[in-house]
Amino acid sequence: MLTERPLITLLTDFGTTDYFVAALKGVILSINAHVHIVDITHEIPSHDIEAGAFTLLASHRAFPRNTIHVAVVDPGVGSARRPVLVVAGQQFFIGPDNGIFSYIFEAESEYQIFELKKEQYFRHPVSATFHGRDIFAPVAAFLSNGVRPADFGKEINDEVRLSPLKARPLKNGNLEGRIIHVDRFGNCITNITRDLLIKRDESRARLRVNGTTIRSFREFFSDEARPTRKLFGLWGSAGFLEIAVNSHSAAEMLGVRRGEPVILEIK
Amino acid sequence: MLTERPLITLLTDFGTTDYFVAALKGVILSINAHVHIVDITHEIPSHDIEAGAFTLLASHRAFPRNTIHVAVVDPGVGSARRPVLVVAGQQFFIGPDNGIFSYIFEAESEYQIFELKKEQYFRHPVSATFHGRDIFAPVAAFLSNGVRPADFGKEINDEVRLSPLKARPLKNGNLEGRIIHVDRFGNCITNITRDLLIKRDESRARLRVNGTTIRSFREFFSDEARPTRKLFGLWGSAGFLEIAVNSHSAAEMLGVRRGEPVILEIK
Amino acid sequence: MLTERPLITLLTDFGTTDYFVAALKGVILSINAHVHIVDITHEIPSHDIEAGAFTLLASHRAFPRNTIHVAVVDPGVGSARRPVLVVAGQQFFIGPDNGIFSYIFEAESEYQIFELKKEQYFRHPVSATFHGRDIFAPVAAFLSNGVRPADFGKEINDEVRLSPLKARPLKNGNLEGRIIHVDRFGNCITNITRDLLIKRDESRARLRVNGTTIRSFREFFSDEARPTRKLFGLWGSAGFLEIAVNSHSAAEMLGVRRGEPVILEIK
To answer: Residue B241 and residue B264: Cα distance in Å, rounded?
Structure first.
């Protein structure tokens, strides 16, 4: 076994009302009864690979070395898209080769990708519509039992990638980004990271989004004696610039959703 | 103990916003701290025994031998309906005798049912409204600790049953079925299984549902170069004929919900 | 370690669509891989401290001795509110000092509160907006590893409290209470407990709520041959007087929500 108590996380768009998630867990525990399974979320919007990729990026670093992450947002299940195992940042990632691991590739300097080919590690018969249960879950369980990554199939290097997550510096020195996630509280997470601001004066920055200009930047949510409904920027817990407002939804106030462009102006 | 690391699953209509599910887990772990608890789902529609029975059927086979399934969809809690323990397919099922185990009885050739009578295995005082916490959870935990099924009460054989799940062959050779589940993606799972088609030519079948005729049968969801909004049938991961459409809700397109009749015509 | 297999529960308003809950679990398992984590709920309404306090009260007693409960409903995260560890009823409670543990203080005769000050038990850098991940989760994990409560910081006794949960006896002998929770089934849980009725004749009681008078008190939900849509009172599984109706939502029928006043008249 990889570790004394192997850890497998699950991230899917299966929801929690059907039997899908339970089927994955049953298959995993049938192969390795000692594994610890943690749900990251099953509420990724149906078929939304980008949302899955972001949530995996934001959560994986909290987990220990050797954690095995199974990520199944898989609109192309049953078609030619390849099932893969990724080794990156001393962790493992298993799922379809459809871009869901893009931001992990972007965040980690080194990684290896193996195509899952060896059918002895699959559950049979392999359903054409449920590779989560029949390929990804059993491969994760066998990996937790000590099977080596290269045993599952050959290394590949022509993986599918989403467009880059990182915000883009413009010629005039501003940053062009976008909202990459709206969380449960209505906070808007942008793809602007602090390292892009090196040598710039944050206190003179202005954030423009959907016709609104935000000039206030704070350290935390309740940074006022009397909370007002004023939008502000803050460096969020996932490492990105967020747009927030006290006890209300910034997304609703701004009238925006994921994908909305954001410009950070630095005079 | 039954196994080195006993496994208890939970399937309820409790939702996840209240303290109900946590109370079950606390009771189980108070009796056997080594048990592994897996949620199947807590989002069965309130009091919908048929939905609970289907989800239990669809998920139980992914779990290993000796798994203990606790299923609590229990509109009659506190009344005369009996609490039972079922032994079937080398697994255990604990819950009310109200039909929730019907499809397990239908799927497994042999089974035994014990009425839960021995109050020393209950949590006291037994609330009249929460047998999940006070009867089913502790019985599951004691079973995982090695108490034998017959120790909980006498065997019975007049169990409550729902109407049969299986589709019905008509005199003209067609199959009359119904939609038994609509999943999160809007796929409509029917009660038609492939064994009913033995010796028939699947390629000449037609599926009629709510005024729509479906002639296309596929192997998986994305079986087209360019996905269209065309309904098709496919043999789903739970072993039943499903009606689906690429990246959209088949249930919405058909205007149907669970219970809708389906006719499979085979010329 | 506290016990052979330490148990940590999580109660938050984080929802299950974001990466927040997974981050807590990853941090805990990075520090103690042997801990068993149980979700109480993550669906507390955003920033609703009172709802969190009630759910914690209703669920904690089902858990065994030495259970560590992490409760994060924390609108003031990052501000001056103190992070605390509470020892009460042979269990542990970790979260913000904002009233979320009020009903535990009310229910347990003795308790101790320690302010979390020792930064060596925090995750660094401590985000200003996510103390769940950076303070509460690691402190819970270190506690499960055997660090003693007093090692995390000094004892305090000026804790923040919500208004008392208990119903109030009026001069005329009646009880004035309120609805403290509406559960998934629409049952209305009041803050009236049976001990307040000592020496009173329950059979002559009347419950008044939002213009409706309820005269029927029952032992369980389905206490009728033919269920009717008649409201009734019953002593619920959490120990409080509940208002219910068979197979429908009492809250909807009464047109009430949490906070609605309730008068119990006893002639």
So the answer is: 10
Q: How much of chain A is helix, strand and coil, in % rounded to 5?
A: 25, 30, 50
| Single pTM value for the model | 0.91
Structure tokens at C21: 């809950």
Residue of A nearest to B10 (CA): A22
Q: Which two tokens stand for residue C181?
A: 């929770």
Do residues C129 and A220 lie in contact, with contact meaning Cβ atoms separated by under 8 Å?
A: yes
- B26–C220: do the CB atoms touch at under 8 Å? no
Distance (Å, rounded) from C-alpha A136 to C-alpha A28?
A: 9
Q: Is C126 exposed, middle or buried (0-12, 13-18, 19+ CB in 10 A)?
A: middle
Of A33, A77, A130, the CB nearest to B222: A77
Under an 8 A CB cutoff, do A43 and C19 touch?
A: no
Q: Do A22 and B236 touch (CB under 8 A)?
A: no
- Give the CA distances from residue C127 to residues A33, A41, A239, in Å, rounded to whole numbers and listed in that order: 36, 22, 9
Kindly list the partner chains of chain B, i.e. chains with 3 or more CB atom pairs below 8 Å. A, C
Residues from chain C that touch B24, judged by Cβ atoms under 8 A, are 62
Pick from A29, B158, B37: nearest CA to C7:
B37
- What does the DSSP 8-state code read for residue B118? -
Helix segments in chain B, DSSP class H: 20-31, 49-60, 102-107, 131, 137-144, 250-254
**Candidates A7, A182, A222, partner chain C, best to mutate (most C CBs within 10 A):** A222
pLDDT in tens, chain B (267 residues): 445 679 999 999 999 999 999 999 999 999 999 999 999 999 999 889 999 999 999 999 999 999 999 999 998 887 789 999 999 999 999 999 999 999 999 999 899 999 999 999 999 989 888 999 999 999 999 999 999 999 999 999 999 999 999 898 888 889 999 999 999 889 999 999 887 776 666 677 899 999 999 988 876 665 555 567 889 998 888 889 999 998 789 999 999 999 999 999 987
Lowest-confidence pick of A20-29, A202-211, A221-230, C48-57: A221-230
> Under 8 Å CB-to-CB from C204, ≥6 apart: which residues?
C266, C267
DSSP C61: T
**A150 in helix, strand or coil?**
helix
**Residue showing tokens 């990459």:** A180
Does B219 sit within 8 Å of A26, measured CB to CB? no
Q: Give the residue from chain A lying closest to C128, CA to CA.
A: A220
Option in B25, B46, B79 nearest C185 (CB): B46
Q: Is B26 close to C223, i.e. CB distance below 8 A?
A: no
Q: Copy the structure tokens of residue B128.
A: 């009249």
Cβ proximity of B75 and B47 under 8 Å: yes
Contact flag B18-C234 (C-beta cutoff 8 Å): no
Q: Which of helix, strand or coil describes residue A85? A: strand
Neighbours of chain A (3+ CB pairs under 8 A): B, C
C chain contacts of residue A41, beta-carbon cutoff 8 Å: 16-19, 21-22
For residue B11, the cross-strand partners are: B41, B71
- Cβ distance of C17 and A41 shorter than 8 Å: yes
Check if the beta carbon of residue A54 is closer than 8 Å to that of residue A181. Answer: yes
